[in-house]
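Standup notes
- DV: blocked on the single-chain target, sequence here:
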Amino acid sequence: MPLLKYFDVRGRAEIVRLMLEETQTPYREQRVALEEWADLKPSLPFGQLPLYEEGDLRIVHSHAIYRHLARTHDLCGRTEGERTRCDIVEESFVDAWRDLGFLYWDPQFDQKRAQYEDERLPVVMQQLERLLEQNAKGEGYWVGDALTLADFVMWHYLDYVRPFSQRTIDRFEKLAAFKRRFEERPRIAAYLRSPRRPATLTVALASFGGTPETS
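- DV (later): unblocked, structure below
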């Protein structure tokens, strides 16, 4: 049975959990406490988590884990065009998620929050909605006519935005509708309601997202 090792937060491991839940893949988790991290870090190839172990595989980069699961469960598109679009959406997610993540960890979060929400976030969301609309006019999936890794990563980004600015999500109807469709999938919905899901986006050291109220 695969083992997912990560902190007791959603973070970079949440996409892994979502993919395993949706594909009904049994898995184990080892939630790492912050006080354990200093001892564990030197044992990891790049000193980072998540770590995913499956048989002889030991994968440490989060997107390598995502792509492994996508290939294993036929979640990366059916044609080369679809696979390429899946890659484009994934890279778009990386840029958007990292951009917002820097703010969440910024010591000046409170001073920068309003400007980011009013100026930067709508630009990113507009770009993403245009990307979504390139496929089936934004009425279905991000790639083709079936679920792919692209849907998992983009839902995760939107859910990362949610506690920060639900009102911005609401402004972009196609993105908001996609988010609802994804989280209404029975297995996803069951996971989101379950106690298995970590309570916070990130650790308490972050300026935002480290408490249930900001998650």
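- Follow-up: Residues 37 and 43 are 10 Å apart (CA to CA).
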